[in-house]
Design brief:
By secondary structure, this protein is an alpha/beta fold. It has 10 helices and 12 strands. It has an 8-stranded mixed β-sheet, with helices on both faces. It is globular. The mean pLDDT is about 95.
């Protein structure tokens, strides 16, 4: 099988490292597609460096910036930001056939409505693994979590087999990974975590674990998550586990992780606030459910983004 990873950011570099390890000694192979020609050249020359604790390993993975240079692809691992999903699908569209499996690995829930134009049925993934991008192509595995993969609808045996093989490779590479028939509920479970952690860490400029000790952080986290849970219930989406306690546990397990939103703020880049807390606010308006905690988080992040130029 040929895996294509699109988007070598923090999550992409982590997933690429895991897949590279998982396919070692097999007939499977991995390629990276990057729209940034300069970064693609750097990664081709230097590879991806994966750091876990005091140990580091380097994976040499072919990287292209032109989809036309890539042969037949079986599985596309889409690791781009939520707001880049549509453009990325168009970019790698020539590689997608009815026998190609596209797996979406985004934060938030805004990407759920995007892939309807694809020729193939897509799968969705969610993970609580922690990834901190230290520099281009260098990623720290900043905390272990759990990964879930699943479909929104019935699929052919061929597509189902592709997802099962992907799960096996993730597992072999070091991700605890499960196939689930409740992928929507699992995406919302991750949304609770994103809602509780990402914006707060970006506003307070702190690591995940520090949210457990900073004054008022716990209350704000709980309020934002509670609003999100109410909206899930309004849509009859099962609420798995105990969202606030789960979020606290993720903070503990990824204590040294710098959230993706804080990494964006540190680099003066656009955040995924609209796909996370913003999605909660919009659904709150739709279902007439107040979302003051998420409103405030959105407002504060947008103020930070507006101040980049200053």
């Amino acid at each position: 099988m040929h895996f294509l990873l699109v988007g070598p950011g923090a999550l992409g570099c982590l997933v690429g490292s895991i897949v590279s390890k998982g396919i070692a000694g097999t007939e499977h192979h991995l390629t990276i597609l990057d729209h940034n020609q300069q970064r693609a050249g750097f990664l081709s020359e230097h590879g991806i460096t994966y750091i876990l604790g005091e140990n580091s390993t380097k994976s040499a993975i072919p990287v292209h910036f032109d989809p036309a240079a890539i042969d037949h692809v079986d599985v596309i691992l889409l690791c781009v930001k939520s707001y880049d999903v549509a453009a990325s699908l168009e970019f790698c569209g020539p590689l997608v056939t009815e026998k190609t499996l596209v797996i979406f690995l985004q934060n938030g829930i805004s990407h759920l409505d995007v892939p309807r134009s694809l020729e193939t049925i897509s799968a969705y993934g969610t993970t609580t693994e922690g990834a901190t991008l230290l520099s281009t192509g260098t990623v720290r595995h900043a905390g272990h979590g759990v990964t879930y993969l699943g479909f929104l609808e019935d699929v052919t045996d061929h597509i189902s087999a592709l997802l099962k093989t992907t799960r096996e490779i993730f597992q072999r590479g070091g991700f605890e990974t499960h196939l689930t028939e409740q992928i929507v509920a699992r995406l919302w479970t991750k949304l609770y975590v994103n809602v509780g952690i990402n914006a707060l860490t970006a506003i307070l400029r702190c690591k995940n674990g520090e949210l457990l000790t900073l004054p008022e952080a716990g209350d704000r986290m709980q309020e934002a998550i509670s609003e999100t849970v109410e909206i899930a219930k309004a849509q009859n989406i099962p609420v798995l586990d105990t969202p606030y306690l789960t979020c606290q546990e993720v903070c503990r397990k990824t204590a040294e992780n710098i959230s993706s939103m804080l990494q964006d703020v540190q680099n003066c880049q656009r955040t995924e606030i609209e796909a996370i807390n913003g999605a909660v606010v919009n659904l709150g308006l739709r279902f007439n459910i107040p979302t003051p905690a998420n409103n405030l988080l959105c407002q504060q992040i947008k103020e930070i983004e507006a101040g980049y130029n200053r």
